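Researcher: I'm preparing a figure for a lab meeting and need a structural model of a single chain. I don't have an experimental structure, so a prediction will have to do for now. The sequence is pasted below. Please return the structure as tokens so I can convert it later.
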Amino acid sequence: MTAPDTTASRTGAGASMPAGRPNAAGRRSPRMRPNRATSAAAQTSLILSWAQGLVGLVDSVRDVSWPRESSRVWELNGTGGRHFLKLSPDRLAFDRETYAYRGAAPKLGDGRAPVLVDADPVAMALLLTAVPGAVVKGLTLTAGEEGDIHRQAGALLRRLHDTATPSAHTRLEAAADTSRLLDQGARQLAVWTPLLTAAQRLLVGDLIDELRGTSELPAAFLHGDWQPRNWLWSGELAAVDFEQSRYGPAVDDFVLLASGPWWLDRPDLRESFISGYGRTLNGAEQRALRGLAGLAAAGGIARGTAAADLELVRRGQLTLNRLLTGDFA
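Model: Understood. Here is the structure written out token by token.
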């Protein structure tokens, strides 16, 4: 069995493996302990041993991470079938994702999201079942298939949002999430200023002020990164990657689609999505979507400029210009 050498050097896992708690299948899973003196090879062996203790012998390991430093995901194949091993980039992401997989994700239905086999809080590792389908981003699809995918994406997102029981707690969490985002945007505006036109700078400042005055928005349990790279398609749609999930305003999960290449260039996909979601956004949500999309666009221009990602810059500029002209849907 081979494994990527980079796995263990980032896990923080150590050499000892005391017995842990029983997992859902009744097996007792080993728990990992950090030890800085442990070699990278030993750490790699440890985390794979942890996975094998849960799902059986692993014959092959394939790196399926996204091309960014914070993404660390491997496909495992062996006697127990196909699984995915994910190392969270930080504690918050680990806590959010394990919470989602234990609570909200099972309510989406069989095959609609991976099942959490086990999670190790020391290594911040999650072992997940595989779900059918190919990542939607990059697939060659017909217009009909694209419409069907977006319709199912809307329906699946509504199901996820509805897992949140309306309460004073979820409403407070949603308001706090928006407040944090606005505070961050206000701080970043000075950084974004050299990258924006005078009209765009004024627009983003006005959008922040408008969002602060927005009435209470419907709260939901958010995915946090709802877009085609986190959708799997097999004729039915499944969702993965819940590390940004949290309680927040439901409209927040519309922002990436509304300010990305999907709805900007294909309003028909927006209509399919809304049809699947089962309700239109209310007036306050529509105003909030404008503001959140503007913040996302300005942030995208900054990130795209830093990374020489011309497409990200183009989309950000297109979103801001459409907001300025009133053409943003």
